[in-house]
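A further point concerns the way the authors explain their paired sequence and structure data. Each protein is reduced to its one-letter sequence and a matching series of backbone shape codes. An entry of this sort, consisting of the sequence and the corresponding backbone structure tokens, reads as follows:
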Amino acid sequence: MLRTTPPEILAELVQWRKRAHFIHANAFAQYYLLCEEWQALTGARIDIGPIQCLCQMAVLNQAKALIQQSEVTWAHF
């Protein structure tokens, strides 16, 4: 992950993990950071009008929004 994720995205991820529920943070790590698709986005950029953004940052922002909408429920088996 450290080889395929730029420092500015790692910094954003660290700040989010400090505020996020550990279940949400772990879900993001398992479903995004460790997959081949995340690695394939390394260095890719997207232009949105006059704004240029790293694709990984766009994915991180979208995933954070979606994950934070989910509810953590505890079930005892």
